[in-house]
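Long-time lurker, first post.

We've been arguing in lab meeting about whether NAP would sit comfortably in this protein at all. Half the group thinks yes, half thinks no, and nobody has a model to point at. So I'm putting the question to the forum: if I give you the sequence and the SMILES, can you give me back a predicted structure of the complex? Inputs are below. Any interpretation is welcome too.
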Amino acid sequence: MSKTQLFDLDGKIAFVSGASRGIGEAIAKLLAQQGAHVIVSSRRIDGCKQVADAIIAEGGQATAIACHIGEMEQITAVFAQIREQFGRLDILVNNAATNPQFCNVLDTDLGAFQKTVDVNIRGYFFMSVEAGKLMREHGGGSIINVASINGVSPGVYQGIYSVTKAAVINMTKVFAKECAQFGIRCNALLPGLTDTKFASALVSNEKILNTALAQIPLKRVAAPSEMAGAVLYLASEASSYTTGVALNVDGGFLS
Ligand SMILES: NC(=O)c1ccc[n+]([C@@H]2O[C@H](COP(=O)([O-])OP(=O)(O)OC[C@H]3O[C@@H](n4cnc5c(N)ncnc54)[C@H](OP(=O)(O)O)[C@@H]3O)[C@@H](O)[C@H]2O)c1
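Top reply:
Settle the argument with this. Predicted structure of the protein with NAP, as tokens:
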């Protein structure tokens, strides 16, 4: 009996935003391990180069490219570079997001509101538009949006962030419905509390952590690597009939 090829990504080009650390780094490394050439991206090129170098040192293929997804010119520029350097894109993982203000919703600052919307909604949307155009030219692809459990059940003092994550879940369905005809699938991953820099304020505060753990049936925080397997599934042929789905990877929190 031969092993399944369903999770092989040989010959695929994958772009992962926010791949210099945390969940994005774990995703980039797993996709590369499965054979994809991974474009490792975030705002700061240094962190991306470190991750790309680590992938190459393990025998994989990776290229570091900086892109601030909250800046439209940078999105346009990065796709011009992808077209020129690779000529195609098979997998887009929209993972980079921001959550600049932790406060009661009534205290939301306009600047924080705008930044969160620009990165988490406009950024994901136009990254998907650009990737979708490129995928359409080559018969299809897979877009994976890293949303959050907060898109379903808003996080305390994470008002506008939770609103944007709900938008990402709906955006996933929009792209799934309208791009299926081009062979493009689009799915969302909804991580639960995961041990990264992003969540450090929550994980390092014993009171907040214990309150969170009380609501998680598996009674622990996730490791970034525990998000990557679900993304591999959604990126690969294993999920060829799955589109428009929001996949909870949350230790049972939303159940
Ligand atoms: N950790 C959790 O508990 C949790 C739970 C639910 C959902 N999520 C979601 O998971 C995703 C990844 O979060 P994480 O916990 O892995 O965060 P993280 O460890 O803080 O990493 C964030 C990554 O995004 C990059 N980044 C930040 N702003 C960016 C921008 N405007 N443009 C491009 N890159 C940017 C950062 O690099 P640079 O600083 O170099 O840009 C970094 O690579 C996010 O969508 C988050 O909402 C996380």
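For your lab meeting: The domain at 13-249 is CATH 3.40.50.720 (Rossmann fold). Helices lie at 22-33, 45-57, 72-85, 110-137, 159-179, 200-203, 206-214, 225-235. Whichever side wins, do check it experimentally.
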